Amino acid sequence: MQAIQVLNIKWDSLKNRYFPWGVDVDVLRLDAIHPFISGNKWFKLSGYLQEAVYQSKKKLLTFGGPYSNHILSTAAACHEANLSSIGIIRGEKPTSLSDTLVNAKNLGMQLFFTSREAYRTKQIPEDVWKQHAEEEVYRVEEGGYGQRGAEGASRILSLMDTQKYTHILLAVGTGTTVAGLVSAALPHQQVTGVCVLKNEPGIESEIKALLAKPFPFTLLHNYHFGGYAKKTAHLLQFMNDWFKSTGIPSDFVYTGKLFYAADDLIRTGKIKKGSSVLLIHTGGLQGNHSLPKGTLIF
Ligand SMILES: *Cc1c(COP(=O)(O)O)cnc(C)c1O
Q1: CA-to-CA distance for 230 and 236, rounded, in angstroms?
Q2: Which of 31, 38, 156 has the most ligand 1 atoms within 8 A of CB, as the residue to mutate?
Q3: Interval between CA 269 and ligand 1 midpoint (Å)
Q4: 172 C-alpha to center of ligand 1: Å?
Q5: What is the CB neighbour count within 10 angstroms for residue 105?
Q6: DSSP state letter for 189
Q7: Tens of pLDDT along 87-105?
Q8: How many whole angstroms separate alpha carbon 23 and alpha carbon 11?
Q9: H or E element: which one contains 278?
Q10: 274 vs 23: CA distance, rounded Å
């Protein structure tokens, strides 16, 4: 099943910006593949959608917060694939829904709100089972974590010829996407994940659990800017500067931190002269709607 064609891969060469450092940098613009299905999420979800259809499931159920890219992507992907979608949302129902949830709802997702305590253990509210037969429902873990997701994400590197790259960098949440890329990368390519969560000692083994073999990869833990969805004035300033000089928008949860890290690694010589770097823009721009208006210039 191929509900969405990847039509709009944009490459942005950043030759002028990194010319003095002798490093070639390209950005794979997965943010541009779809207005709602955020970059990497489509590739992860494709693995689950395929299995759901194979198992004759009618509905996908998953979990997320009120600004979750994964929730909106799931709603949109199910909409395209003619499956129903059910979102278990963290926290009590607010008086006004976030843009993310309004869009998910408009795409047909049925929302169930649950207390933070119940959410933590990923309990499914009883109301769900009053309205849906369990055997019709396919469950996708929070953030799309899992093997099928990693298999789907491994297809990202076959979208085009990526052989020339010596370094591939991307932002890491659950680690599912980086696991897919690690398994698809060539032996001369170093895959580096920029972790956006703080104090996450388990992430490395969670990624390894998705790999069929002990492929090598690197994780960076010093670019989280305080933790998941945390930001500083310095990060926001960088995102605006990056946009001014490259024309590439980023989000403050994932890709802003990725570009910051890449910029830092190149300027400090940790990525050496002569390297050829591929940065994966995993999307997520809709999450910027949670910022006060005017914070970002794009
Ligand atoms: C979800 C997401 C990620 C993280 O992907 P994982 O597979 O969970 O590591 C990175 N970037 C963006 C924009 C995302 O929405």
Answers
A1: 11
A2: 38
A3: 27
A4: 6
A5: 14
A6: P
A7: 999 999 999 999 999 999 9
A8: 16
A9: strand 276-281
A10: 5
* d(C-alpha 295, C-alpha 251), whole Å: 12
- Find, among 130, 128, 121, the residue nearest to 87 by Cα: 128
The kind and range of the H/E element at 111 are strand 109-114
Confidence at residue 7, expressed as pLDDT on a 0 to 100 scale: 46
* pLDDT at 264 exceeding the cut of 50: yes
* pLDDT on residue 21: 94
pLDDT of residue 5: 47
Helix residue ranges, H only, 19-115: 40-54, 69-81, 99-106
Q: Which of 174, 194, 257 to mutate to test the pocket of ligand 1 (most atoms within 8 A of CB)?
A: 174
Placement of tokens 């950005």 in the chain: 27
> What is the distance between the terminal CA atoms of the chain, rounded to a whole angstrom?
35
Per-residue model confidence as pLDDT tens digits over 30-49: 998 888 888 899 999 999 99
Which ligand 1 atom is at minimum distance from the Cα of 38? 15
Rounded distance from Cα 104 to ligand 1 centre (Å): 18
